[in-house]
Amino acid sequence: MLSARTSMRGWRIIFLQMMRSSLSGLKTTDPAIVVVDEGGRWAISLLSGHLGRANDLARRIAAGIGAEAIVTTAADLRRVFAVDEFAKENNCVVGSMELAKEVSSAVLGGRPVG
Which of 4, 17, 29, 39 has its CA 20 to 30 A from that of 110? Predict the structure, then answer.
């Protein structure tokens, strides 16, 4: 489902629900949300960058409208392995978000995992 509306400040908000979920506050069920500025210059991954695929969606939208994708997740910025993204790309389920956070923290901190 794809819908767009203009907010009071002129931002267009594009919602794409890539999973059947609601804004529950849980990383594992939040939908991808990407914001595009009024001038169409930036497509910003706002929520659920890895598991909801908002980072990929921002890149696709940016490519489609000639904008720049803004992705701010730490693993993407540092170009390191992301547990949740790996799981999503390989049709796996993250069994423990706490453990995934520990692994991600170690990877981002340059510490060994395993």
Answer: 29
